[in-house]
Amino acid sequence: MAERLTPGVYVEEVGGNVRPIQGVGTSTAAFIGEAARGIPDRAEFVSGFRDFERRFGGHRRGEAGFLTAAVEAFFAAGGRRAFVVRVLPTDATPGASAEVPARAADVWGVNRPSLRFDARGNGAWSDHLRLHVEPSTSFTDRAYRLRIEWTEGGRSRTVETFDNLRTDPESEDYGPRVIEENSQYLRATDLFQRDLDAAERTAPPLPEQVPALVSREPTVEAGHPIPVGARLTFSWRDGSSGQGTDVANPPAVTFSEAAVEDAGGTVAAGRGTLTPAQLRAVLGDALGEEFRVTRPDDGDPGDDIVRIEPAVASDAYLAVRLPDDDTEFDVSGLTAVRITAADAEGENPEAVEVDLPDNTTALSPAALAELIAAAMADDNPYGLAVDAAGPFVVITAPAAADGVGLAIAAVGGNAPWPEPDVIAGDPGVLVDSLRGVEITVSETIQPGVARALSGLFGSVRSAGLVENDPGDPILRPALTEDTPLRLVGGVAAVREVGVAQYAGGVTDAGRTGLHAFDTVEVNLLVMPGRNSPDLLSAAMAYCDAEDVFLLADGVGSVDTDFEISADEVRQLVEGLPGRSDNAAMYYPWITVPDPVSAGRNPRRLVPPSGHVAGVFARTDSTRGVWKAPAGVEAIVSGAVDLQHRLVDADQDLLNPIGLNCIRQFPGAGIVTWGSRTLSSDPQWRYVPVRRTALFLKESLRRGLQWAVFEPNDVDLWDRIRINISAFMLGLFRQRAFQGATPEEAFAVKCDRETNPQEQVDAGIVTAQVAFAPLKPAEFVVIQISQKSLLVV
Predict the structure, then answer these.
(1) What is the C-alpha separation between 521 and 691, in angstroms, rounded?
(2) Confidence (pTM)
């Protein structure tokens, strides 16, 4: 309750007892079948036939065109909302990209695979995808962007974009996870993580790295233009130990006129110009021993950059590689291999002698690594470790305050390996993990002095990398530039789609078949032309579980010479293995214009369920779900003929078994002339009665969500009764029920009688709702008799 201290008038909002219940939609159709393209086993919303064509393709001949014809008929007849699921045979295969290499070769010269993309679903539809790996928008030095295009008919459009993706699984922007959770088209596999988890390593480890700020390349030929007086402050911090620069007085660099000229640079019009070497000199003098200011080795394409890193110790690495095309080291004539470790200055050397077995002429990398490990088990003052990875033998020395240098030599003959690759361990402060070390640079804003930071450094912060760190920037997928990635190998297959593909299920890979509709709201289910007993049983079971109404197709064929008697149709329907309150079947198939065949006025036969779904949607919109979608108003739009023209004697056999006939009448055209369900329960005999009940169930379920967890007492019962009564009264005024008064039309009860104490104790509240449904006037009887004229 609000606190009131000062006398006055207080106006407060108080919730009323009436929470309006809104009627749910009743004519959102769910179509499932075969299409020319599209992502299989995913419910796609379509708002019109053009939308369907864009996603799933156009008309096709024969049974392959049933789905397209049904969707077109639905929208042509008045439907407005539909979800479509494409199914494929079991022998369909998904498209996949080639392995995408990492952004650059690593320090050992190994080109590592980074990612592989797979289509999210089988079929040739993925041939239309083009994948572009592009620079990240916000983090150009650490992340990447993936843009997905759909290309068809010479035109392309971007359908998805994922920006600022990372290669580190611990990041919330980890690329494969973001794509898996959000992309409608792709899955991604992290090939670097896959190789790390492999039983046998094929590539040496990625060395750990001290964090570093790397300058941009000079923007002018003379060097870096820097505003005179600009001031940059550098700091580093180890997050676990707290070691780092003095927070109160971090090292700073001021590019004064004197500092620029003393370094050999030039000053003109308030702006100094420094070559990369001169910039290194200025930074080195100002930052002192807390930082290392370096550059790549001479001859490296990046000689023009300046690298600044904290004076933190790092591991040392030595990698020995097999000669090209060899599978073993030729050690004939050698007696031993000597491993030497020393500090960064080459002092305090310690050697480990690895004796080779007598008469040994060749050793694989794994065998050589095993010998070295055995020798170091007894004498290993620097704590060296050795491992074999494919053609490499890698020796690692842990970080030391004085630094570490490694060397390897063959004893007794020439070395059987090329010049080893060596990464010296830098001397400096010892930390537990380089990943917790961060270096930052900031700029002091001064009046009248232009900013220098953005022109000198592309990033103002950098963190260290541990060994095999997945966040290493080189592991980002290579840019595709003018050659986008394609998903190849996707095949739509040639087998027929079976019951298992239509019925689907819920698996670890996702929801398939009918279960693809689980996450969307649909009211009518259409499986054009699919009317085998086992498939109808699966569809009825799904509709009963999800309160969806099935529109099933009766017996029919695309063959114009197909013939069957009404009695044979009756026997087939009566032989169905199951019945459902939530299903209706329509017969016969209908003839429509054929948009894919040649000739004058081509026609073809299609199942009627899509057309009937359109009749349902139109009737719901104009009259309400309680009106039977049948009669002279229920014109089957687009139909020009019927596969079998029924007469009254035929319908005498079919109507009692719940098979709804499509008839042609003079002056009315082709109309649906039946409105019965396939229910074995007489109270749900009629389609509008059952669909009204489904409408009420879903509307009340959604409209009363507010009541969950409310105090279960008389006040709640009254509020529930008031809300349901208000909703039902609104429907009564729309003439949705029988009865001349609300009391005759419906009844709502929610009181102590429906909620005894034992149910209240169990957390249950029960409201009873009864309604008098409108039933169609299926048989209109006119009684005619002669009237006698009595003359007095």
Answers:
(1) 15
(2) 0.73
